[in-house]
Amino acid sequence: MPRIVMNHGAGGEAMQEFLSKHIVPHFPKASSDVPLDSMDDSAVIDGIVLTIDGHTVDPLIFPGGDIGRLSVSGTVNDIAVMGATPVAIACSLILEEGLDMDTVDRIMESMGRTSMECGVPIVTGDTKVMGAGTLDKMVVTTSAVGRRSELLDGNLAIASQCRAVKDRWCTDSNLAPGDVIIVSGTMGDHGVAILSSREGYGFESEVESDVAPLNKMIAEGLRAGGIVSMKDPTRGGLANTLNEWCSKSRVGIEVEQASIPVREGVAGACDLLGIDPLSIGNEGKAVIGCVPDLAEDVLKAIRGIPEGRDAAIIGVAKEGNRRVVMRTEVGGRRILEPPSGDPVPRIC
Ligand code: MG
């Protein structure tokens, strides 16, 4: 009998297939702007933007962050990358009997601080305890609602002056050939920080998680205008995000390896461990698709915010073949395949 394996929750092709076979078909279809089966960062129904994430990161506290900061940031970012304004967060805690109170206090304090930082309050919640040994310390589930803003309307109006724009939100299916792809900073920091602190490789002295709420940075990008698609490259990293965009927007994407920012410590650690920094998760980065005329303006706006200081233009959407082609630093071309799952388990 087939059973659940770790890869079913690892954010790549194996999870996509699992969801579309065993989860999504059982749920009745609702008529909504962005429905369940579009499997975007958030759903949009009756004008409300809604998202939810369960967090199982191991360890609970890691270089650069903890499960509390991660859960607030991840959920706020899923709302923000739709082009929506996050309004409020709900939080469910499941705790293991015997977990020490200091850890609980520290993580809740971090959630509160991150909520202050992004200006999105936690307004409701639920707490349950499970017996010792039946759960690994703590699972934090956060949900958020968001709403449409004049900022998004203005941004899409500017994009529409350059070309016809299909969706009213910054969805995965909204790219067109010619659109420019921007990343808001270095790739792979979170995955390497988690792996390193878990396995004790010692990279943690150099690499910290990038976990951060991005709603303020994204608001600046929208103010510049011309953004049509956004996504936070979490599990499966940039490779997964770009491949999802190719299949949902029916375009090809060409990227320049030399333009993709990767920290030296992350590149070194990935080399040593034989993993690709473009396939591991980020928790404080956005990938942005923008009409070509506004790309420099959006880049400049994003770079003006601390979370976006390393932002770069990395490529362009193309007509035809729905694949991600990377021009390598040595002048070759290779296909950037969609990862089967994030190589680092329990990354978020
Ligand atoms: Mg997302």
Distinct small-molecule ligands in the complex? magnesium ion
Order of helices and strands: HEEEEHEHEEHEHHEHEHEHEEE
Binned strand content: 15-25%
| Helix count from the secondary structure assignment | 9
- Structural class label: alpha+beta
Radius of gyration: 19 Å
Q: What proportion of the residues is helical, as a percent range?
A: 25-40%
Report the sheet with the most strands, covering strand number, pairing sense and barrel closure.
7 strands, mixed
The overall pLDDT average reads: 95
SSE arrangement:
Elements lengths: L12 H11 L19 E3 L2 E8 L5 E2 L2 E2 H14 L4 E12 L4 H18 L3 E9 L7 E10 L2 H13 L17 E4 L5 H11 L15 H10 L2 E5 L5 H13 L2 E5 L7 H10 L13 E4 L4 H9 L8 E7 L5 E4 L5 E3 L13
The structure holds magnesium ion.
Characterise this structure:
The protein contains nine helices and 14 strands. 31% of the residues lie in helices and 22% in strands. The longest helix has 18 residues, at 101-118. The protein starts with 12 loop residues before the first helix and ends in a 13-residue tail after the last strand. Helix 2 (67-80) packs parallel to helix 3 (101-118), helix 4 (150-162) crosses helix 6 and helix 6 (215-224) runs antiparallel to helix 9 (295-303). The mean pLDDT is 95. A seven-stranded mixed β-sheet has the order 9-11-8-12-10-13-14. It is of the alpha+beta class. It is globular, with a radius of gyration of 19 Å. The structure holds magnesium ion. Magnesium ion (MG) binds at residues 41, 78, 231-232, 234.
Key words describing this protein structure:
348 residues; alpha+beta; 31% helix; globular; binds magnesium ion
